[in-house]
């Protein structure tokens, strides 16, 4: 009978290896809202209105934008590809609704600028309203 041992390096790697947690996805059958680090709060109705606008008036006519707006900054607990689109127009930091092509809202993220000039996306926190 052989016993296997784990070397010190392997043990260290297992301990310090990063864990990628999946962001929670709200249940579309319930009312919810998202509160963002920017101070903005968005209800399900406002988010759904924006998602319907994008999926009905932009993606069907400009399919090249689907890959442009593909969102890969966070992992979500759904198997579909997700996209992001700003909740407001114009320059500056924005909050983005994150959704799939079937109008499912999976999250909201705030884009803030770091001192180095890089874009940083921060997830917004969702809560159920009832």
From TrEMBL:
Residues 1-21 form the signal peptide. Keywords: Signal. This is BgtE-20072-2. It comes from Blumeria graminis f. sp. tritici.
């Amino acid at each position: 009978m052989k016993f296997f041992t784990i070397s010190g390096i392997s043990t260290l790697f297992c301990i310090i290896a990063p864990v990628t947690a999946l962001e929670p996805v709200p249940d579309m059958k319930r009312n919810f809202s998202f509160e963002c680090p920017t101070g903005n709060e968005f209800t399900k109705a406002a988010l759904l209105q924006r998602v319907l606008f994008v999926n009905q008036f932009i993606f069907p006519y400009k399919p090249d934008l689907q890959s442009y707006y593909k969102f890969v900054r966070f992992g979500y607990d759904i198997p579909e590809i997700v996209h992001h689109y700003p909740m407001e127009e114009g320059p500056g930091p924005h909050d983005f609704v994150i959704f799939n092509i079937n109008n499912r809202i999976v999250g909201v993220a705030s884009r803030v600028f770091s001192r180095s000039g890089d874009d940083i996306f921060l997830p917004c926190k969702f809560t159920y309203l009832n």
